[in-house]
Specification:
By secondary structure, the chain is of the alpha/beta class. 19% of the residues lie in helices and 39% in strands. The longest helix has 14 residues.
């Protein structure tokens, strides 16, 4: 099984001060320019390339400890008899000693690093 893992960091949790007016024929969705910010959240996600299934986790911070908890979540949700190949980018959270130890303790898992995609 090949799992593609990535994260979206610092997603803003915004609350508009006025209700959003819905999309209508010939009229775009409309919203007020002002908002209340409720902080940020990070999303960890793993895509099973064969089934299209996504395993995800939301966290308040983006550190190796949260990434390790996400790997533990993957470990709990993937059948033990499957060999798992995890594709990672070169994020610093993926290269810590704790993550290296996790990979050593889970010999059925292997990881591949790839350079981050740069648009433009």
């Amino acid at each position: 099984m090949v799992i593609c893992v990535d994260e979206k960091t610092a997603v803003q949790a915004l609350d508009r001060t006025q209700p959003v007016l819905p999309l209508l024929p010939h009229t775009p969705e409309r919203m007020s320019h002002d908002y209340v910010r409720h902080g940020t959240i990070d999303l960890f996600a793993a895509l099973n390339l064969t089934s299209g299934m996504v395993i995800h986790q939301l966290t308040a911070r983006h550190r190796a400890i949260e990434f390790k908890k996400f790997l533990d979540l993957l470990d709990r949700n993937i059948p033990a008899e499957l060999k798992v190949h995890v594709v990672l980018d070169n994020s610093s959270t993926h290269k810590t000693p704790a993550i290296g130890r996790w990979l050593v303790r889970h010999p059925a898992s292997s990881s591949t690093s790839r350079p981050p995609h740069r648009a433009g």
